[in-house]
Amino acid sequence: MKQKLLSLYKQPFSNEIRRLYVKWKRELNTIIDTTVRKVVEFLYNKGVSLIKVGYPKNISQKKG
Is 53 part of a structural domain of the chain? Predict the structure, then answer.
């Protein structure tokens, strides 16, 4: 019944699904932020002064 009403008003999904997605996305961002913070603190305590983020060029061409 819900799907029928949604298609009648040309909505791809319900507000309930949208709210669940927003909640999931917020929780995921929190987990990622916490993990990154812990890694940076760990590296700082180990004496690392420079952290490079990204994909190094030509890494896929190196063997090994």
Answer: no
State the average pLDDT over residues 12-33.
Answer: 87
Please state, as a whole number, how many other Cβ atoms lie within 10 Å of the Cβ of residue 43: 13
Question: Is 1 within a domain?
Answer: no
Answer yes or no: pTM beyond 0.85.
Answer: no
**Confidence check: pLDDT of 1 > 70:** no
Residue 13 token pair: 């999904």
Domain count, the chain: 1
- 51 and 40 Cβ atoms separated by less than 8 Å: yes
Per DSSP (E only), the strands in 1-64 are none
- DSSP class of residue 5? H
Residue 56 lies in a domain: no
The answer to whether position 4 is within a domain reads: no
**What are the phi and psi torsion angles at 47 (to 5°)?**
95, 10
